[in-house]
Amino acid sequence: MIYTRIKENSYQDSINLMLLTNSVNTVDGVNSAQVMMGTDANKDLFKDADLYNDVVANAEPNDMVVAIDSDDEAVLDKVMEEVENYLSDLSVKKDSDSLENVATWSEAVDALPDSNVALISIPGIYAADEIERALDADKHAFVFSDNVSIEDEVRLKKKAHEKGLLVMGPDSGTGMISSVPLAFTNVIKPGNIGMVGASGTGIQEATTIIDRLGGGVVNAVGVGGRDLSEEVGAITMLDALSAMDQQADVDVIVAISKPPAKAVRDKVVAMLHSLSKPVVAIFLGEKPEQNEGDVHFAYTLEETARMAVDLANGEKVKETYQTELTNADTDIKIPEGKTVKGLYSGGTLASEAATLIAEALELGKLSKEEGYKLKTNGFEVMDLGDDMYTQGKPHPMIDPEVRINKIKEYAADDNTGVILLDVVLGYGSHPDMAEALKPAIEEAMNNHEGLQFIATVVGTQNDPQEYDHTRQVLEDLGVLVEDSNAKAVRLALHIMGKDLAPAPKPTVDYKGEKAALPEPSEKVIDLLTTKPRVINMGVESFSSVIKKHGGEAVQYDWRPRAGGNQKLIRILNELDKMDEIEEQNERVIDRFKKSAPILKDVVPAYTVIPELKEKALLHAGPPMTWDDMTSPMKGSCIGAALFEGWAETEDEAMELLGSGEVKFIPCHHVDAVGPMGGITSANMPVFVVKNRTNDNTAYCQMNEGIGAVLRFGAYNEEVVNRLHWMKDVLGPILSKAIKETENGIDLNVVIARAITMGDEFHQRNHAASLIFLKEVAPIIVALKDVDEKDKQDTVQFLADTDQFFLNVMMAAGKAIVDGARQVKEGTIVTTLSRNGKDFGIRVSALGDEWFTAPVNNPKGLYFTGYSEEDGNPDVGDSAITETVGVGGMAMVAAPAVTRFVGAGGFQDALDVSNEMDRITAGNNPNWSIPTWDFKGAALGIDIRKVVETGVTPIINTGIAHKEAGKGQVGAGTVRAPLGCFEKALVAYAKSVGISVEDE
């Protein structure tokens, strides 16, 4: 059976997940397992592995999908425990690191403002966009990612060239800048050799041999395997070569390439002959017969390294470089008819081995069969790093599984006489590959007499795995180990009775044309002559290695923009080019900051909202009909009808409300807001808040207190009587008290004071309610011509109602956002609201248009006797508080409420506020939060940031029972649905002329 579990919004890079998959597969009871992100490409891999079901199908790209095949469903719990332990270990490693981790590109740039390289190791489908973003920010790109289209590579490399930058890759597995390792790299001694290579393992083989020969390398620029293709035209190699030629600490230049296009090869060779420094060049697969001038052509990577060291030491190049085999005196002989099998983790090393074997044994051309470099007459050389073996699995440099299986297979083949292996050391590779392969090698040699293993170790003594240790483990097993891949192949041929004897290679004068050297850019010179300053997006271990070797690095915890939605990514990319959006948003934000909400009065709603003079009710959220209302909102409507005297009984009210005679209007459409159901009728008293800065006014009904209340759908006699008391007593007394103040009550002052006292203004308003009481109580007591009991009841009600200020805050928030909405530009959210069916937002540039998505159910704490099954979908205009930057956005301000709303403890509240800060355009200095190091509340939710990150606003909320009349059953938090922000982004893109059609 297939059992599946989803970890929502839990992104990990592919290498971590591959290793986690290996770990999960060891759990008892697991027949097979796969852990991947829920991208479309990965879903195909789940299908291929027969681990696909409806749960996998519905996963989002930012969801981690754990799928297992097991005979027992209980095994899934063990697997998830293993997953959690693995992720916890990763977290501990992060905490013990001194790395700075950031969540967005802009944060990365801010954290390392003088960064000059983006190291990109993310899924290839997203890499082109990130390369372009780096180039647009004037940064070089080192691209470990593969599966970037050739069209994108050509376009981006041309763009980089025009900007004086380098795109190193894609599929550049290794590099070294100013002796700092990048990606899967060995630790090489610094020296006077500079290298440019279109081959990752080719660079590793050459540099490690140079190191072991006593030489050193200052730069090794990987350009990607296709750089010398006809389409790309060696753009990066040519730019890097011209810069190295001017680098004072480079005396010798090495160029390495897989087989290039002939026209490109000729162009590169012309460039090599134009350089002022001696050059060693190898075009893998070619067998040069001579050196030309100062350009020395090598046949093997070992020869390349030896030539470079001689030149670096000021010595002349020798005519031959075939040194004696370490194991030349072995008496091992392979019987006639036996063949060589090569199992390589390095594609270039596999190609080199295949070339040497095919030449020596006259086997003809190399194989074009996928995964093989040679497959002729029983001789096979495999590139286990080929895409066919690594899709959804770790590279064989990391994980021995594929090679172990092939060792068993080849050992069981009676025709196999020799198995060739490479063991590649360095950062990123398996911590002890020799030990990992040991059991399989021992078993094969014990069970198959005469079978011989020959290996080469690509590494140095300073690599984390230590060259000598690795070599000793292999030799102790009886493996014959040679100093280079070429020598390992030669040894295999030698024990078969076939020796390679190279012809001497003379040096002749170069009589061909030279190329005009382009002037290298200052940016490339800076790259090659200073320690790299890296924004690392993807594999986190790359960052720590850079820092260990003297570079600077910030770890960008990359996730696919817009959850991997290609349409939305294209829109975001286009919007990134529009610098004016930031200026527009700043103007909108400035309106928020400069708003001056003043509480001016409390009046009957119909006196300031003309629409209520007819038979109408205001409701929370986007527009909706009676039939679409949830039960609590309908209950609130029933209570309002009874309060207004439109009906005498519940049945009469239901009949009236369903008849179409009553008009339902969103509060937001008439400058108002209302909590929970938001139901406001003509004679209900409302706060009148004027935004003095922008001369607009907003309204909100008054808070009823706790218990059975209209806003939660209760409509019994107690509820209706309280509403009448508020209309007849509370409202008029507060109106008189407020009018006694000189200019009304300055709400900014109340808010600023209360936020320093632990309020966040949605679930906690204790301080603000007390400050409000402090302002009005003395005035109420002093009022003349007012019944003393009424005054006492009013003051007592205010003292008892901890949440009284919430409705004042809501009116203030509405006044603030409507003042900002006067500026119709930018991407700032100016309304968050929900009606129990839909969550709706409005955006600064798009005016009154609503963008909706199905509302979510709150998660939180429930009163005794209730559970999530009792909760109503989220409802209310009170998210106006989050719209202006408080409520859930400022969770950290109210540690006392965090557990009540289900946020855990203070650290959780801090994490929420930090997360909300990522999706806003600024902070409000007027509302400084002491528990946030006096940082201003996050302000200005930006739809671009929400869609890009997938992080949606979190809202503190009360939870109503799903049945009318039962009132509040808990409190918690709810996330705004991403869908409404995505719709808004598409509409905004259309409004600024961006094509939004799917490709």
From TrEMBL:
One of its GO terms (biological process) is tricarboxylic acid cycle. GO terms for molecular function: succinate-CoA ligase (ADP-forming) activity; succinate-CoA ligase (GDP-forming) activity. Coiled coil: none annotated. InterPro entries: AllG-like, CoA-bd, OXTCase_su_AllG_h-dom, SUCC_ACL_C, Succinyl-CoA_synth-like. Residues 189-285 form the CoA-binding domain. Residues 343-492 form the ATP-citrate synthase/succinyl-CoA ligase C-terminal domain. GO terms for cellular component: cytosol; succinate-CoA ligase complex (ADP-forming). NCBIfam families: PRK06091.1 (NF004760). This is Succinyl-CoA synthetase, alpha subunit.
